[in-house]
Design goal:
mainly alpha, binds protoporphyrin IX containing FE, transmembrane helix, elongated, single chain, 5 helices
């Protein structure tokens, strides 16, 4: 015998106001996981197109005029790239902390304090990200 469920309107985007901690953790984990995949492919594309530097002459390498070094230096000169690096760190740290939390929950550890451990992941991510800013911005101006 078949049953039907009222799942609500798909268009009802205002439902996000009723989301609880677990739903935000699920959304953030998906978001950060796919941002990391996007970064991975971008990273490979940028570095692999700079590889011709491998065949550069010694004099060119010594003068740091090879394509690889120029690519990295040009990117790091852009403030936008520095800001994106801070964002990438935040995304990676959150995914690692929340992912570890999820693995522990899967093992039955911390089932009663899932909300608290999610908030702890957020706070720790924020603290590590803020602490990293001086390092990422150093030499940008
Ligand atoms: C310490 C490192 C990491 C840990 C502990 C971790 C943990 C996890 C866990 C537990 C899940 C499954 C979540 C669930 O039950 O729904 C997951 C999903 C995922 N992770 Fe990671 N992960 C890590 C690193 C990475 C990296 C480096 C990438 C990408 C390059 C990545 C990409 C993804 C993606 C795309 C998903 C699926 C998201 C979805 O539900 O659509 N993760 N991760």
């Amino acid at each position: 015998m078949s049953q039907s469920y009222n799942r609500g309107l798909i268009e009802d985007f205002s439902r996000w106001r009723e989301f609880e901690a677990g739903m935000w953790a699920w959304i953030f984990h998906k978001f950060t996981g796919w941002v990391l995949i996007g970064y991975l492919f971008t990273h490979i594309a940028v570095l692999s197109t700079a590889i011709p530097a491998a065949g550069a002459e010694q004099a060119v390498l010594a003068a740091e005029a090879d394509i690889y070094t120029q690519t990295i230096v040009t990117l790091e000169e852009l403030l936008l790239v520095r800001v994106l690096e801070v964002g990438l760190l935040a995304v990676a740290v959150f995914h690692m902390l929340n992912g570890t939390r999820l693995l522990l929950v899967d093992l039955g550890i911390g089932l009663e304090s899932q909300d608290k451990s999610f908030y702890a992941s957020l706070i720790l991510t924020g603290a590590i990200t803020v602490a990293s800013v001086p390092t990422f911005i150093a030499g940008a101006f």
